Structures are given as C-alpha cells and as structure tokens.
C-alpha cells in the first residue's frame, strides 16, 4: 500500500463555470484558473501522484502551457492514472474534503462521488467526499474553494 496527500485551492469568481469532481454545478460563480480549475480533481491528482512518487500536477501540467488552457481536469486525472499504471500501481481508495461556503454541496454530493468512482474505476464505497464550511478559518470563505485529498494505491496484480 502507498498513501499520498493532495491539497489545492482556487478563487471563486464571476464568469466561470463551476466544475467539481468533473461535474458542472450550477452556480453564479466558478473557479478561476488556467484549466477548468477543478480544485477537487487537482488535489486528488496530487494525492495519487504523491503516493506513486511521481512529480506533482503543477510540474506535469504547468499552467504556463497553452495546451492546458481551459482543459478539463479529467484529462489530468486520466493521465495521472496512466502514469501510475506504468509503475504497476492502481488506486484502491480515496477520501476528499472540500472546504467552501458556497454553493451547498449536499444536493450534489452523491453525483460527485459517483463520478469519482466512475473516473477512478473503483466502487463508490471506496470514495469518500465531505464538504465542510470554513467556520473560524482566516480565509475569505465566500471567495475560495479548498480541497484536500488522500489516496491509497496498491500494486496492480500483473
Ligand atoms: Mg489547481
């Protein structure tokens, strides 16, 4: 077993789509970034890459590279899964925490979990997803979404 930890944060701004865990969520603001800025998938990719001893997301997919402008972050996840497969590893389990004030995630939580399960090709009961409001934290809560992710990898049977 190998374990990795990932973190990311993006600002919420007007005029952008809000994409979390590869799912577009209706909201008047979206996350700013070079790609679709899917903060959850970015944290998740870094957790997986870290567990595999690979370079982080920003190194593999630099935000200065015009090829990744507006890219769907599911592309980064697919490439991450390809890279760990090359190392004889696969994702066994993941757990994510989103820290945000808006929008409320509860109505979408199961859809997001199911999409992660589908993207990772693991059963939904090995995908954890929680949303927390940032009470007492010194961040401009309504303007940012923060994501933490843990990934457990295992050696793939050859
Ligand atoms: Mg990011």
TrEMBL record:
The keyword Lyase applies. SUPFAM superfamilies: IpsF-like. It catalyses: 4-CDP-2-C-methyl-D-erythritol 2-phosphate = 2-C-methyl-D-erythritol 2,4-cyclic diphosphate + CMP. 4-CDP-2-C-methyl-D-erythritol 2-phosphate binds at residues 8-10, 34-35, 56-58, 61-65. GO terms for molecular function: 2-C-methyl-D-erythritol 2,4-cyclodiphosphate synthase activity; metal ion binding. Residues 1-153 form the 2-C-methyl-D-erythritol 2,4-cyclodiphosphate synthase domain. Binds 1 divalent metal cation per subunit. The keyword Lyase applies. A divalent metal cation binds at residues 8, 10, 42. Keywords: Isoprene biosynthesis, Lyase, Metal-binding. Its cofactor is a divalent metal cation. Homotrimer. This is 2-C-methyl-D-erythritol 2,4-cyclodiphosphate synthase. The lineage of its organism: Bacteria, Pseudomonadati, Thermodesulfobacteriota, Thermodesulfobacteria, Thermodesulfobacteriales. The gene is ispF.
